[in-house]
Design a protein that fits this description.
The protein has two domains: about 50 residues, no CATH class; about 70 residues, no CATH class. About 40% of the residues lie in helices and about 25% in strands. It is built from four helices and three strands. The longest helix has 27 residues. It is flat, with a radius of gyration of 25 Å.
């Protein structure tokens, strides 16, 4: 593990690494204090929720059928060439991940792919993200 950390910082100036490590010294203490406060107030919060009738057991909740589920993802890349940009984007949507017994609205995964040459433009990434957003749903 130590070797992995050393390789991770191999390309960085040692002064930068030391400064980052110095900045993190107080963070562990602050995190610990936050966890201790939550632990101290846990019972108080539990009692308050019980008095309001908000805290319940799972067995007390009504049965609700599990709906179909889906997953959506996408990615894009821009390769800046001498005269143009080579752009590629893909969006995919899959339904029925769990439970598989549910009725699917889409019989199979959907996807869209775009690979084009475009003129250099700083807004190309925004356009590609919009393409993924529009075509992944």
């Amino acid at each position: 593990m130590n070797e992995q950390i050393n390789n991770l910082f191999a390309e960085l100036p040692s002064a930068l690494v030391n400064e980052v490590l110095q900045c993190t010294e107080g963070l562990s203490q602050a995190l610990l204090e936050g966890f201790e406060k939550v632990h101290e107030q846990r019972e108080q919060w539990r009692k308050k929720l019980m008095n309001l009738g908000i805290l319940r057991r799972e067995s007390e909740l009504p049965y609700i059928p599990i709906p179909t589920t889906c997953g959506v993802d996408g990615s894009y890349a821009i390769e800046h060439l001498l005269t143009n940009d080579l752009v590629a984007a893909a969006a995919v949507a899959v339904e029925g991940l769990t439970p598989p017994s549910e009725t699917r609205y889409w019989p199979e995964p959907r996807h869209k792919v775009l690979v084009e040459m475009e003129v250099h433009d700083s807004g190309t990434g925004t356009i590609l993200r919009a393409f993924m957003d529009r075509n992944g749903t």
